[in-house]
User: Which sequence fits this backbone?
């Protein structure tokens, strides 16, 4: 491959070497195909569906639109980093319990997006939730159970 | 129990309980392996060169430039197809790779394998194909008068129905012409999979699909291999909705893998996906309804034209569904119906949720509203006067001998409290959201109703049987069944059924594969719970029977002295009470081949016949706000009453209904694959819009439970019905808000805002 580069990425608190990567590779591609972190999904690869959502320095982005090499020096959090010990985060637990998961292809993106939403706004209104999640497409659920999962987490965190 | 009272802990994870998905944990953690996640050592990437033309003759293909690119391992064309050159779900009319002619934009012409997806992309771009562009026949209304674009001709099938007095006339007559655009299934998981050569000339394909065995029956002949040399295994499947009924990358990946003797993965990009699978048939429909002055239906006339696209896929059966369900769930004594599906140079149409019925449901429900206006009844009353009930005859002459709670569905939907008025909604909740609404004073609210029904499982004499095996060993039940889990929750229900019958806690679902068991049929036509769920229940019951015999033998009592009760083997006097899971020291195993009741073809002239296995019914009410100036629609609330037989997992059923309603809503107001002369103009999620959280209103659901005799625990399939009636309900609500005719879906902003201009123009 011409234009190959080598660089390091900080993902979920761990240091990863990316070797002989084509410079044009997206962060999504490097996560999935070079580092084996396939939790971030490839539903559209054009920034419309949110299935590849990750946090880069705390910013919610579509990893398909980020150049991987340009993410050197940032802190990247993927869905795999939200339940590192094998348990489920409150958001993950609520999505399963409330029926927010069907085919599940959008689910990792929603997990990241809902964490991002609730970390910034502990009690969003229903419209704020809709607004925040409108960049994540789901074709199976019609979103009703996903929104119910968000409400459950809000209530649980409220205590 | 005759002589004792026994308190049984009913399993909390059995039938009727909303248990959690067994794959839920892996899916939320990102650990569930979808077909596009697969990886193998030495794996190459496959990619497809597709026709840029809707209709063209291939004059030459030069693969030379691609072969010179470092990292490219194989470039294959039609000459390299090792077996049968064509495939197809019902007739093998579609080339694996086009040889002389391409018949739609996106038809595969060549395939490559390379070390990196970008290398594969560059290789595809370097192949030189010389085309002679031919006239594309893309208007289905011209197809039958045009030269044949395929050796099989341009007529795929005409399905007539003649019922009762075909000359009957009602004193009230309403007529309408309706159109439906192309809807894409838009599943999120791309067409993808990995083929792995076995080193002995055979191949294993790990793929996302609705039906492993129906794929296998097409893949092996095209590869020129014996059936046992090709094994298909279900990879994680990211939705389907009909689009994985037909093959996509299956044969291509296997060809490449066998050619280079390395694993090959293929995963379509989204623009490719829009031409990489069959879509919902677009339709032109003319209807004339005759009724009495009281609004009772006298006769329905319908002429339905479906565009099948370039290859047959399941179009012949789609047309039959359009004909059989053209009247909707109403008593119709007389009918003259013709449904025709033609071949064109558009991309192939095929299965999508609601299979041929979504189209006619939009038309017949539009007609019922016209009829209501003509006789001075409200939309609910006109429907209640005509609804089918158990014991009535359909226009095929078949008697509805299962629960048919159409009235109950409609009354449930109609009785849901109305949402707050538009004046109470903040700006964000208005059509178009904050900032895009022209003037609050120009927002109108409307309410619309619709009912629909569809058959369960396959029809017209087709025996879509299924198989399931249950093995009970050491208290663990293992279920083997090739049914494809697409997201619908079959795996959850399979476990629930097993736990309920056998009373065991631990259920293992073996991976679905053609290598371990025969066909379960496809995850289509709302059939898997009904069919394979029943097979699993039967297999478990046979195992329970084995447990009963084992206990009888061990305790030296007659088998008849023991009963199977709530997962236990119990004697009448309760001196023996053993959980089935511990009843036998030897493993117990049973395999069942389950067939639904026999069905029969439609008479080729009259369409009469007992064609269907069972039916499911639903009703929707939609409430919308419409911005008259901008033509924007906000669906405020959907209410659904749905016939479910018995909800085995209520949460799953709710999820199916909400998902179906969202797809129906999308078809009503936003979803359309737009084509110009057969070329798709909007193959992306930027331009093909599906509902987001911001578009979806609350869905108020009432489950109507009238168990069907013989169905597993009384359950009907629930996947499709709510998407039938949600589209016409939304359109009816827009009509109520605007007074417009709206004879085409999706309803676009210009259809509302520029309606006057268009009428005058």
Assistant:
């Amino acid at each position: 491959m011409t234009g190959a580069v080598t660089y390091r990425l900080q993902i979920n608190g761990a240091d990863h070497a990316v070797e002989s990567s084509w410079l044009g590779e997206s962060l999504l591609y490097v996560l999935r195909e070079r580092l084996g972190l396939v939790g971030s999904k490839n539903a559209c690869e054009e920034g419309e569906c949110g299935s590849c959502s990750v946090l880069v320095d705390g910013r919610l982005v579509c990893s398909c639109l980020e150049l991987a090499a340009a993410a050197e020096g940032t802190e990247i959090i993927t869905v795999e980093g939200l339940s590192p010990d094998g348990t489920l985060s409150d958001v993950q637990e609520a999505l399963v319990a409330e029926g927010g998961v069907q085919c599940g292809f959008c689910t990792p993106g929603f997990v990241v997006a809902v964490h991002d939403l609730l970390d910034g706004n502990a009690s969003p209104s229903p419209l704020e939730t809709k607004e925040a999640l409108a960049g994540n497409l789901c074709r199976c659920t019609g979103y009703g159970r996903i929104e119910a999962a968000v409400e459950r987490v809000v209530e649980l965190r409220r205590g | 129990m005759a002589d004792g009272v026994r308190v049984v802990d009913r399993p909390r994870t059995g039938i009727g309980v909303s248990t959690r998905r067994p794959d839920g944990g892996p899916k939320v953690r990102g650990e569930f392996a979808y077909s596009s996640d697969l990886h193998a050592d030495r794996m190459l990437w496959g990619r497809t060169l597709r026709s840029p033309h809707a209709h063209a003759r291939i004059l030459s293909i030069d693969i030379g430039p691609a072969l010179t690119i470092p990292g490219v391992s194989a470039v294959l064309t039609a000459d390299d197809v090792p077996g049968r050159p064509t495939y197809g779900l019902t007739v093998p009319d579609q080339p694996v790779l086009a040889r002389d002619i391409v018949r739609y934009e996106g038809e595969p012409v060549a395939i490559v394998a390379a070390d990196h997806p970008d290398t594969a992309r560059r290789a595809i771009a370097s192949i030189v194909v010389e085309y002679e562009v031919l006239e594309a026949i893309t208007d289905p209304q011209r197809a039958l008068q045009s030269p044949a674009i395929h050796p099989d001709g341009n007529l795929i099938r005409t399905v007539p129905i003649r019922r009762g007095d075909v000359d009957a006339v009602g004193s009230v007559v309403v007529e309408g012409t309706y159109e439906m655009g192309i809807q894409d299934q838009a599943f999120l998981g791309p067409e993808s999979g990995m083929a792995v050569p076995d080193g002995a000339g055979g191949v294993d394909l790990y793929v996302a699909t609705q039906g492993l065995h129906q794929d296998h029956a097409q893949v092996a002949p095209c590869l020129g291999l014996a059936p046992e040399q090709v094994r298909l295994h279900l990879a994680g499947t990211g939705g389907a909705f009909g689009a994985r009924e037909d093959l996509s990358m299956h044969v291509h990946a296997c060809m490449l893998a066998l050619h280079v003797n390395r694993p090959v993965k293929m995963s379509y990009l989204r623009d490719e996906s829009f031409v990489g699978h069959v879509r919902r048939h677009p339709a032109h429909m003319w209807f004339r309804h005759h009724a009495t002055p009281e609004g009772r239906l006298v006769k329905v006339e319908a002429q339905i034209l479906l565009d099948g696209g370039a290859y047959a896929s399941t179009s012949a059966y789609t047309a039959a569904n359009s004909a059989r369900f053209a009247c909707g769930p109403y008593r119709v004594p007389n009918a003259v119906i013709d449904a025709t599906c033609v071949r064109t140079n558009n991309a192939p149409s095929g299965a999508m949720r609601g299979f041929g019925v979504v189209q006619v449901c939009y038309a017949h429900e539009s007609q019922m509203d016209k009829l209501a206006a003509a006789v001075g009844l409200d939309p609910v009353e006109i429907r209640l006067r005509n609804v089918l009930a158990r014991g009535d005859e359909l226009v095929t002459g078949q008697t509805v001998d299962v629960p048919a709670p159409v009235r109950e569905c409609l009354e449930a939907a109609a009785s849901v409290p109305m949402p707050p008025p538009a004046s109470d909604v903040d700006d964000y909740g208005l059509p178009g959201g904050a900032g895009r609404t022209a003037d609050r004073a120009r927002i109108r609210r409307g309410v619309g109703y619709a009912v629909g029904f569809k058959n369960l499982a396959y029809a017209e004499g087709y025996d879509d049987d299924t198989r399931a095996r249950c093995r009970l060993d050491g208290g663990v039940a293992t279920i083997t069944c090739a049914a494809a889990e697409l997201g619908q929750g079959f795996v959850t229900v399979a476990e629930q059924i097993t736990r309920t019958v056998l009373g065991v806690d631990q259920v293992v679902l073996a991976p679905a594969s053609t290598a371990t068991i025969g066909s379960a049929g496809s995850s289509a036509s709302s059939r898997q719970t009904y069919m394979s769920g029943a097979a699993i229940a039967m297999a478990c019951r046979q195992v329970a029977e084995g447990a009963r015999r084992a206990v009888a033998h061990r305790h030296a009592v007659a088998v008849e002295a023991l009963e199977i009760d709530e997962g236990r083997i119990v004697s009448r006097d309760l001196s023996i009470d053993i959980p089935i899971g511990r009843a036998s020291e030897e493993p117990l195993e049973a395999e069942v081949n389950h067939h639904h009741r026999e069905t029969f073809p439609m008479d080729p002239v009259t369409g009469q016949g007992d064609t269907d296995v069972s039916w499911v019914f639903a009703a929707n009410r939609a409430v919308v706000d419409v911005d008259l100036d901008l033509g924007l629609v906000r669906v405020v609330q959907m209410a659904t009453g749905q016939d479910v037989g018995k909800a085995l997992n209520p949460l799953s059923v709710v999820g199916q209904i909400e998902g179906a309603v969202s797809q129906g809503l999308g078809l009503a107001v936003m979803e359309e694959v737009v084509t110009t002369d057969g070329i798709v103009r909007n193959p992306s999620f930027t331009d093909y819009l599906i509902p987001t959280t911001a578009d979806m209103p609350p869905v108020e659901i009432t489950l109507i439970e009238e168990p069907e005799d013989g169905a597993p625990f009384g359950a009907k399939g629930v996947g499709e019905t709510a998407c039938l009636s949600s589209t016409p309900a939304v359109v009816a609500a827009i009509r109520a808000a605007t007074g417009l005719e709206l004879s085409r879906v999706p309803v676009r902003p210009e259809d509302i805002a520029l309606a006057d201009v268009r009428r005058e123009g």
User: Anything to note?
Assistant: The first strand of chain B starts at residue 44 and ends at 50.
